[in-house]
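During the reporting period the student researcher (J.K.) took over the structure-prediction task from the postdoctoral fellow and processed the backlog of single-chain submissions. One of the processed entries is reproduced below for the supervisory committee.
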Amino acid sequence: MNANSSSLAGRVAIVTGASRGIGLAARGGCVVDVSSIAGRTPSPGIAFYGVSKAAVDHLTAGLAVELAPTVRVNAVAPAVVRTRFAAALYADREDEVAGAYPLGRLGEPADVAAAVAFLASDQAAWITGQTLVLDGGLTLTGRPA
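J.K. obtained the following structure tokens:
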């Protein structure tokens, strides 16, 4: 997502339109968005990306209030996950980057998928407006994302 207003407006339109248009608001349901720890912690070289993800976090909280009580809205905020998209952040130095994480490894797509599945499940029925940080403990160290 870009840090421009049309991208944010698009997210709002999709979520609120879906909640009204397909009856999500009447039937109930949930939305799980994808943010990033870059939206919470300054990340050198990707400031605009971080700004856009901070906006996602705020939008998640706002829509949670607006769409409650029938629709829950949450987000996940992963750190570096081993994907093609993030490869430039760890290419040729994965061990070094992973060493900064208290859990000693980068995230895997399955880590994010499991968190999304939980937030979408009935087990998370009393959770809304939250952004779940998935970072192997990185933000606890005070190091940049």
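The committee noted the following: Strands lie at 29-34, 71-78, 131-134.
J.K. will present the remaining backlog at the next meeting.
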